[in-house]
Amino acid sequence: MKKITTKYSDLSKSQLIKLVEEMEETFYQISNDKNETELLSFPWIGNLGQWHWMVENNLLLFNEKKLTNLGYEREEIPEEVGFEFFTSKLHPDDYERVMEDMRKYLRHASDVYEVEYRIQTKDGNYIWYYDRGTITKENEDGEPLIISGIVFDITKRKVLEEELKESNEKLKQLVDIDELTGAFTRRYMLNKIENEIQRYNTEKLCFSLIMLDIDNFKLVNDNLGHNIGDTVLKDFVEIVEKPLRVKDSLSRWGGEEFLILLPATNLSDAVKIANEIRVGLNHTCMNDAGIVTASIGVSNYYEGDSTDNAIKRVDDLMYQAKYDDRNCIKY
Fold first, then answer.
1. How many domains does the chain have?
2. Which residue ranges does the record assign to the PAS domain (predicted)?
3. Which structural domain, as residue segments, surrounds residue 195?
């Protein structure tokens, strides 16, 4: 094919037709030459071969493996296929992102066309493809004439990623959530308090802590059994959570002890919340266990406190309530 040195606007109709025919012939030759060898050039799992897109004519050539992987036979589709044959099968949530990636590449706003997306198979299911392409031919004005790339089926990888994500979520729940009560764990709460201290140091937002210990819980286990004791712990958490706000966090600190973090809350407001909890407990009958109360300590954060110091202060107040009268609040 001769090198084109004249602009398209200077060509006659017959010259333009000839030019297009020459480009198409060259394009088909490129595709046919590579079709049998491209899978050997990229021997990775999921390789579906190369594709070549003649931008001006919207003519797309591709390895038939990309088509059969979607459940189609070559005879089922038109002889000439445009870019929209595949883009029309994109998942609705991926369509605009994929198209924008291509638009950005066509206007040279990105170095390479590279995208992952879901595409619908003939039977209506979706699988994952990874596409990567680059401009292989431009006109004199730097506008793309041919873009060539390679496509992979990455469905297995995506399934593994999703399984790993679910496993990590389950592991995180095991680490952060108490299995019996559904409250946060001690470890989680320690991290939350440390974060609140950092927040205080930068924003000077005071926070408060409430420590609760179920009164006479050992008697519940000894007299009614551990199954009833477990039920009491779960019911206790449900009652305690009722007056809490979305931003508050409740953790099982250990055994029958629970710690509440109240972000952006002064001592006065924290005592009000603690009293709501105390009243809720006193007005709720836990079946066989009857009324279950708690000894409660309330403290706000003092500037310069470490995490341990802040927790020790509220813990001491809780024990003061326990050794004085039980079923009361100390602050």
1. 2
2. 56-109
3. 177-330
Q: Exactly one of 38, 196, 256, 257 is catalytic; which is it?
A: 256
Q: Are residues 113 and 185 in the same domain?
A: no
User: In the prediction, which pLDDT does 28 show?
Assistant: 55
256 in catalytic set: yes
CA-wise closest residue to 243 among 281, 213, 207: 281
- The pTM score is 0.56
Measured CA distances, 19 to 73, 127, 263 (Å): 31, 38, 71
What pLDDT is stored for residue 65 in this prediction?
87
Residues 82 and 58 sit within 8 Å (Cβ to Cβ): yes
Q: Give the number of other CB atoms < 10 A from CB of residue 63.
A: 21
Cα(26)–Cα(145) distance, rounded to whole angstroms? Answer: 12
My answer on whether 185 and 154 are in the same domain is no
In the predicted structure, residue 29 carries a pLDDT above the cut 80: no
For residues 268 and 199, the answer to whether their CB atoms sit within 8 Å is no
In a domain, 172, yes or no: no
pLDDT in tens, 146-196: 999 999 999 999 999 988 888 887 777 777 899 899 999 999 999 999 999
